[in-house]
Amino acid sequence: MAGISIQNVYKNYGALNVLKEFSLEISDGEFVVLVGPSGCGKSTMLKILAGLEPASGGKILIGDKDVTDLAPGDRDIAMVFQNYALYPHLTVGQNIGFGLKMRGMPKAEIDKRVHAVARILAVEHLLDRRPKALSGGQRQRVALGRAIVREPRAFLMDEPLSNLDAKLRVHTRAEISALHKRIGVTTVYVTHDQIEAMTMADRVVIMRDGVIQQIADPDTLFARPANLFVAGFIGSPGMNFMSARIEGGRLTLFGQNFATQKGARDGEVIVGIRPEHLSLGQGDVTFAVRPTLVESLGSEKYIYFDPGENAYGEAARDEERGKGLIARIAHSGPVREGDELTLSFDPSEIHLFDPKTEKAVD
Amino acid sequence: MQRTTLQTLSLYAGLAVVCGVLLFPIYWLFVTALSTLAEIRQLPPSFWPADPQWSTFAKVATERPILLWLWNSTLAALGSVALSMVVSVFAGYSLSRFSVKGGRSLGLFILTAKMLPATLLVIPLFGIFRSMGLIGSLWSLVLAHATLIIPFTTWMLKGYFDTIPRELEQAAMVDGCSPLGALFRVVLPVATPGLAATALYAFVLSWADYAYARTFLTNAQGSWTANLGITTMKGEYVTDWNEISAAAVFVSVPIILIYLFLERYLVGGLTAGAEK
Fold it and tell me: Taking an 8 Å Cβ-Cβ cutoff, which residues of chain B contact chain A?
């Protein structure tokens, strides 16, 4: 086991700069998730870390060893691929033991380790099968087994759950977390799914267009997003954004004027409020809306409504937010579209962002 | 959707007709080999000889050097296949995996050799082989066939390598293989169906050659290939078509055997289970 130090790593494809000055210190045994939309550079960073792509510049240390120019096999890392990448011509046992064989380990020791790992992952009865005879979940376990059998210094995982169905994904997510707690190997996990990131990570690195947006633990990311992108990316449904104005330290929103506890200066701001921070009925700041759409999820309802004069232009262009603002209401009675509804929120729950820099206003 | 009996019967009838059309020349070759010369010439022709002349095969095998010619054909074909496969595996893999400036144009340029008629290359190849002292040697055929085979097999293999997920090699490299090790330990075993199909294609192309053998081996009877040898069985005044047909059956047998042997490798789907 070892910590990982990524220092000013960048990657260019010709004139295209896909990864910009990426720096990250990962502690020994830490579970770090790189998350972001497609094309944000997270998989590129993972491949550079694995040695499968050369970095255009920068330095990578695993433990105290500079691995920047080492071949993947010399970095003492293991990787789980999005599509598992099991060797189809080998049995499950041979797949798991392949890395050990490449390192010249005696056959008896390989067999012992393969069986031990197979027992942990409950695939011992599948050792003689070929990958094509396995279900998706079983293939996933074998891919994990191939990684852990080598007892590497770090695990790299590239969206390992994205090919599983929703139920199995939740189950395997918990299994990977439990496995990490059990063996405690430093793990760098890439996903585009913010729920995976939030539920599994010790720390989350949010990326966009090759640039780190914020590095923080899940609770901090949710409670104190560094900018508009992070605020919108974390949380489901995403944060509501509105345009508003601060005058004399007071904010006017939904026709209500109230003091903001944030240290924002007077002028235009983008206001963010999470759907779950809007409540049904009277509260600190109360306003009335007419729902344009009500989605019932059984235990809760998503109530969409028009932001009126507080509409934020960028939000309207977003496919999800284009439907209007969302209130996530639990345990409500029947709510009908078009009927007037009273909502409220606590002013301390709102987030303010600078319209020019899109950075959070503290 | 469930097929009705009539649809099934129609399907099988259609397949029987297609198979009949495809197999008739082979059947006719066999019947001719077993017929007497009089039966061959009779009108209307007989679809099965009254007294099958099995001795024709023994006669051809003993009185003609058909076995030597077959051996020469085998050597030339195996040499061509080996040379072509070695070159095209690396070339096809490179075209599939490495993007270098002008790589695609270079790949297409390789195909230009395939666009020229084989006979057009005979004269320059003859000049080259003569200067190398290869005229009359089976090596001339090996090299000449390789020039025809490699462009096509390179692209066949490139197409096959394209279907193999890159993650397999990446996983092998993370597991400790060098890039070349990943090719030999993972990619090539997975590509067995593609390699088998390509090797078969190369073998058949070399086996079926007549023009190059006729040009490069004319004065060296001991190195004649079967196709070249059979043409010398046609006499100036009399032609024993039954013997020629028997020799042609001998020439067909190795190809049929190779097809039967490689058939299990030709069935695709080995990569099933590698992903998702």
Answer: 165, 167-168, 170-178, 181, 186, 189-190, 192, 269-276
